[in-house]
Amino acid sequence: MSNSLIDTAPDFNQPIAVLKHCHDRIRKQLQTLQNLLGHLPQHGADTAAQKAAEAVLKYFDTAAPMHHGDEEQDLMPMLQATARGADAALLAAVVPGILADHERMDAEWTILKSQLDKIANGVSTPLSVDDVNRFSEAYAAHMLTEETQIAPMAKRLFTDEQMELLGQAMQRRRGIVPTSAQTLADLRLDYGLASLSEEDVLANPIAQFSKWFDEALNAQVAEANAMSVATVDAEGKPTSRIVLIKQYDERGFTWYTNYDSQKGQQLAVNPNAALLFFWSEVERQVRIEGRVEKTSPEESDKYFYSRPVKSQLAALASKQSAPIGSRAQMEENYEAVAQAQGEQPKRPDYWGGYRLVPERIEFWQGRRSRFHDRIVYVRQPDGTWLKQRLQP
Ligand SMILES: Cc1cc2nc3c(=O)[nH]c(=O)nc-3n(C[C@H](O)[C@H](O)[C@H](O)COP(=O)(O)O)c2cc1C
Ligand SMILES: Cc1ncc(COP(=O)(O)O)c(C=O)c1O
């Protein structure tokens, strides 16, 4: 129980209150900056000024980036995954501005920091009133938006479990480990952002994938386009690796690679493969199974020539998955290819796309206490899709 007469920081089990507390600390630092503006002309970089500059530097170099991280990586994605209707519309309108503010405030901070560094080191240098005011005004408007639009929405929409998850994420960002030594076996997240029912999913699994993919992008899932591709060798032994999806449509899911690589050799013998997406931020997994075919040379050309030239050259310089003696040898190979090919390298026949033609697509939504939702689509001989719920 906290004593309401004493001003202490709130616990991480009240993450929105912690964020508000951060705002109050930011306001104090901004006031210190104003005080410095008044102090410096008379006293120069005396001990008091040095201490004030140090305090501001410490806060905006360490605490402020973590505060922005809390919002960008946890609070906003969680809200975006939870909000519906008018709340979702409000977020769509407000969040891009908040992210842009963070970038602007970072840039403004860089300008102020170089001045404060000198003052902290006892160098009597002027502090620019304009720079301080721009920085302060950017923060003031930004914090007001968050306190009036974002925080009340989070308090209204988040369940106790979501608040707990947010608080845990914020603690992890600050390197705070739970007091009781946590063992590996105890590491677990409980999911609860959303649900998935037979009525929620679209009739066509590609359309459903498209919906979830867009939602993952909107929720700023890190590398939402990264997927695992599992293949098997001639003896049926599986291997898997991450690649980037480059296209999907009714025909299937496409990525690009070296046809002579390990996966290429395995797919030549056995075209069965499985794709996997895990979008942790939205607590979703998509599993896709089917047979793989090569994209047409025209499609491969189109993608190859759309890549940065250096990546084209790297593809030419690499016998993917073959051993090599050293990094230096690789660099030599790259230089030789760059010399030979110039600015317009030609796509080699051994580099191109694979398209997995799906036979089975499963959508998994994490739920509380491991009682998850799973809906699978299985392609029928007549080309239609049979939809079933699977047990968690
Ligand atoms: C995020 C990420 C994306 C990747 N994307 C690709 C890709 O699109 N194509 C590719 O050939 N390798 C990609 N790789 C490298 C593969 O994971 C792998 O190392 C390489 O394809 C060789 O695999 P193999 O020996 O099984 O054929 C990526 C790796 C990571 C971590
Ligand atoms: C070896 C290799 N090839 C291709 C890709 C796909 O990248 P890009 O988007 O540049 O085509 C990657 C991505 O990491 C890669 O590592």
From TrEMBL:
Residue ranges occupied by any Hemerythrin-like domain in the UniProt entry: 15-154
Domain Pyridoxine 5'-phosphate oxidase dimerisation C-terminal: residue ranges: 351-392
Keyword DNA-binding: no
Entry cofactors: FMN
Pfam hit, one: PNPOx_N
Regions crossing the membrane: none
Binding, FMN: R241, I242, V243, L244, I245, K246, Y256, T257, K263, Q285, Q320, S321, W364, R374
Enzymatic class: oxidoreductase
Annotated cofactor note: Binds 1 FMN per subunit.
Pathway(s) where this gene product acts: Cofactor metabolism; pyridoxal 5'-phosphate salvage; pyridoxal 5'-phosphate from pyridoxine 5'-phosphate: step 1/1; Cofactor metabolism; pyridoxal 5'-phosphate salvage; pyridoxal 5'-phosphate from pyridoxamine 5'-phosphate: step 1/1
Protein role: Catalyzes the oxidation of either pyridoxine 5'-phosphate (PNP) or pyridoxamine 5'-phosphate (PMP) into pyridoxal 5'-phosphate (PLP).
Name of the protein in its database record: Pyridoxine/pyridoxamine 5'-phosphate oxidase
Gene source species: Rugamonas apoptosis
